[in-house]
Design a protein that fits this description.
Number of helices: 16
Distance between the termini: 39 Å
Strand content: 15-25%
Number of strands: 23
Radius of gyration: 23 Å
Structural class: alpha+beta
């Protein structure tokens, strides 16, 4: 991890940056600015891009959730589907065509009308993507959910789940799909399926992605002109000073007009620096509170919110990275070598628990009878000996300069897990890489990695979003090809009856844990904190916190 900057320097930088925006805590209420005008929220990293169609990182999607709206959205503080830009949605008899009745009188931030035609412009933009827009790093969520495009330019892309969009009238739109899928309509809650202004998409060439797959150049729309219908509008992104400013959409006609006039996201990558900035009043909230800081900050009177544990931290085993890792006994040995309970007890927040499978037990389809791998050093050594792998050396990648909801301190986690592996005779070569783009690129492509840890925070409340996202197709992160397993996932995804689908998820969880492509480590309830005088925000298991409801106590 990057060494913390000197505290005085941190405070000076934060105050200077916020003073430019007119929102330093010391100014609020003393300079004629209303106390409830501005909230500055500390985040761990910069957004990657402001067009959520092109994003998969949490900070980009956090901004998108304030600026854009989707057809359906999660209930506040939960995972259930509720109305968004659509008031209702119904499938036809085949389950492949869904009719959405839209809210009327909605305007985009540029003053143009939201209607059924606008919905189709957006879906057709995604579906008809070409060139770099088909790169898995450019349109990740479209490919995770919909698969391919109208004309696939890569051999590994499947047929698109999406088929067509038809505007029946201004407030009625039909979305047709090639098959029944567990992803519809739940996945349409994702910020990546936000509806954009067609005029802005054209004016700022939103799909004009240039550069190369290794060096993507985004158009001005994605960096300077995101245009949605949400309660906040984009105002400015000061990349040098690490601040992104949103302002209230005064014309918003949705369920909750923003109570704040200005919302600023301030990047403070160091966890201790975020805590100091909160205590000094330079920011009025931050995410990813360190486990050791939860109780002290709560006792100081700060408004501490704890999200339900809706995530998974896992150790991935790349079966192409080292031939020995294709041996199930070696993978079992790695699982038995890890003292996951010690990691949970020492490094994760209160309420964290050891994971038995790749989804939390709050999701339908979780299976209490999956194969499990208890901490057993002697069993691990025995399995390595049986596999002829007593002199095993593994490259273990871990990330730097990042904090994730499931991973509060990557270096500490790496050290604990690598020490466990060394204790059973495995030689570990630690490879630290900056989170974005180095670590993500290295661990999700190619075969240069043997072990790494990553995680997943659920996007919506269906089990396929966990296990299907990871294991329903061949992926470089895991390095295996298991057609029989992939076919079972396809069967589950296309099962319309929820009860039957959940039973198939149970079977899949057992199959995955028997095959053991990696080791599920833990589920964590991440914390988000606000100032003592800030209220109105409800913690979301999907990290879908709504800043439109935030306000300062009078």
């Amino acid at each position: 991890m990057r060494a913390p900057r000197p505290k005085v320097a941190i405070a000076a930088v934060a105050v200077a940056a916020l003073a430019v925006a007119g929102c330093a805590e010391s100014d609020r209420g003393d300079s004629g600015t209303s106390q409830n005008d501005t909230l500055v929220f500390g985040v761990a990293g910069d957004p990657k891009v402001l067009d959520p169609s092109l994003a998969s990182d949490g900070e980009s999607l956090r901004v998108a959730r304030q600026v854009f709206e989707t057809l359906v959205r999660p209930e506040e503080g939960g995972t259930k589907i509720t109305p968004g830009l659509a008031e209702s949605w119904t499938p036809d008899a085949t389950g492949t065509v869904w009719t959405f009745k839209l809210r009327s009188g909605v305007k985009f931030h540029d003053g143009t009308d939201f209607n059924a035609e606008a919905v189709c412009v957006n879906f057709n933009r995604w579906y008809n993507s070409t060139g770099l827009m088909q790169s898995p790093d450019v349109t990740p969520y479209w490919q995770d959910v919909m698969g391919g495009f109208a004309k696939n330019e890569r051999d590994d892309l499947p047929e698109s789940l999406f088929k067509s969009c038809t505007a029946k009238d201004a407030t009625t739109v039909d979305l047709a799909f090639t098959r029944v899928s567990s992803k519809v309509p739940a996945a349409l809650m994702l910020p990546s399926f936000s509806i954009h202004s067609p005029k802005a998409l054209t004016d700022y060439q939103a799909s004009n992605i240039t550069g190369s797959a290794d060096d993507v150049k985004y158009p001005s729309y994605a960096m300077e002109h995101p245009t949605g219908t949400g309660p906040f509008k984009f105002k400015a992104w000061d990349i040098a000073n690490k601040t992104l400013t949103l302002e209230r959409n005064e014309e918003y006609t949705g369920p909750q007009k923003a109570k704040l006039k200005t919302l600023i996201f301030k990047t403070i990558s160091d966890e201790n620096a975020r805590k100091q900035a909160l205590r000094s009043g330079d920011i009025q909230g931050y995410d990813l509170v360190g486990p050791a800081d939860v109780e002290p900050l709560k006792n100081e009177g700060f408004n501490m919110l704890t999200r339900p544990a809706f995530n998974i931290l896992y150790l991935a085993i790349n079966q192409k990275g080292n031939p020995k890792l294709a041996d199930i006994k070696v993978r079992q040995a790695i699982a038995h070598a890890l003292n996951r309970q010690a990691l949970v007890d020492s490094k994760l927040p209160p309420g964290a628990k050891v994971a038995s499978q790749f989804m939390p037990d709050t999701v339908d389809g979780w299976n209490p009878t999956v194969p499990t791998y208890d901490y057993n050093v002697e069993k691990a050594k025995q399995l390595l000996a049986e596999a002829g792998a007593t002199n095993l050396t593994l490259r273990f990648h871990y990330p730097t300069e990042v904090t994730r909801p499931y991973m509060p301190n990557p270096k500490d986690i790496f050290e604990l897990l690598s020490n466990d592996l060394k204790a059973v005779g495995i030689t570990v070569q630690g490879i630290p890489l900056k989170w974005s783009p180095d670590y993500l690129n290295a661990t999700t492509s190619g075969s240069a990695h043997d072990l790494h840890f990553l995680g997943w925070t659920g996007d919506y409340g269906d089990g396929y979003n966990f296990i299907g996202t990871m294991f329903d197709r061949q992926k470089d992160e895991w390095g295996f090809n298991n057609p029989a397993l992939f076919e079972q996932f396809k069967q589950a995804d296309t099962t319309a009856d929820p009860a039957a689908r959940f039973e198939l998820y149970k079977q899949l969880n057992a199959k995955v844990m028997e095959f053991l492509p990696g080791v599920p480590v833990s589920h964590s309830p991440p914390a988000i904190v606000f100032g003592k005088d800030v209220t109105g925000v409800k913690a979301s298991p999907l990290t879908d916190e709504r800043f439109a409801t935030a306000e300062f106590k009078s």
